[in-house]
Amino acid sequence: MKRKMHTPFIIVLFIIGFMLAMQYNTVKNPQQRDTRDLWDIRRELSLEKQRHSELLANIKQLNSTISKYENMDNDSPDRILRETVQGLKQEAGLTAITSPGLVLRVDASPEAKVLGQAVPNISPDLLVKLVNDINRFKGNAVVIDRKRIVQTTAIRDINGQTTVNSLAVRTPPFMITIGTSTLADANKLASYLESSSIADDFYLDNLTLSIGKPQKKVTLNGFDQSFHNKFLSETTKGE
């Protein structure tokens, strides 16, 4: 009888002991504190605000498109649909555009020219780093040696030759054209590139990167290769 009475008591003591042990372990090993400084937090906040602004702009654009469809006349559906398709093509980089922007020039370094060294090709890693730096500012359109950068673009080495969209990039000199939303954005991008270390990275590879002055109008050609997608398919009328 006493053994039966002691069993629940032992179980209760075991549970209390287990809870105390868990509490002690929590106090001894608290959750990791956020050790970021104020500038790191401000930088992350700035990125989140930028994403929020982009989402609001996308929502506004979609609402405008919906409003056009809701208010269209009987003879205007085709026109609105063509405008929508044209806008999507432009956003995807399939059409030529003229916008504010700037032009970069890649060339051999003066030392390489004076010493008569062979002009080196730009490496894929260096080109990718430059594109990533440019893409820190959203909404940019980029053309490298007349090759438009789109979502499916691959920059890689093929048989010792740097390629963009599987097309070889010429031996320097060649141009990189960047289109921005506004002239102010072009000025910000130019200032960022001038203050970054990207020019030093080029110099280490016996190349120079010249950053042109922001312009009110630069022209970028569209993506002129076959565009393949994995998720969309054309349907016949009535489906």
Describe this structure in words.
The chain has seven helices and nine strands; from the N terminus they run αααβααββββββααββ. The strands form two sheets. Strands 1, 2, 3, 7, 8 and 9 form a six-stranded antiparallel beta sheet that branches. A three-stranded antiparallel beta sheet has the order 4-5-6, covered by helices on one side. The chain is extended and about 90 Å long. It starts with a helix and ends in a 19-residue tail after the last strand. With 239 residues, the protein is α+β, with helices and mostly antiparallel strands.
Uncertain segments are none
Number of helices: 7
Shape: extended
Helix amount, in percent?
40-55%
- How much strand? 15-25%
- Sketch the major β-sheet: 6 strands, antiparallel
CA(first)-CA(last) distance: 79 Å
Number of strands: 9
Name the average pLDDT.
Answer: 78
Order of helices and strands: HHHEHHEEEEEEHHEE
Structural classification: alpha+beta
Whole-number radius of gyration? 29 Å
Task: Give the secondary structure arrangement, pairings included.
Blueprint: H1 2-28, H2 38-70, H3 77-92, E1 97-108, H4 110-114, H5 124-134, E2 141-144, E3 147-148, E4 155-158, E5 161-164, E6 167-168, E7 174-179, H6 183-195, H7 198-204, E8 207-211, E9 215-220
Antiparallel strand pairs: 1-7, 1-8, 1-9, 2-3, 2-7, 4-5, 5-6
In a nutshell, what does this entry contain?
With 239 residues, the protein is α+β, with helices and mostly antiparallel strands. 47% of the residues lie in helices and 19% in strands. It has helices at 2-28, 38-70, 77-92, 110-114, 124-134, 183-195, 198-204; strands at residues 97-108, 141-144, 147-148, 155-158, 161-164, 167-168, 174-179, 207-211, 215-220.
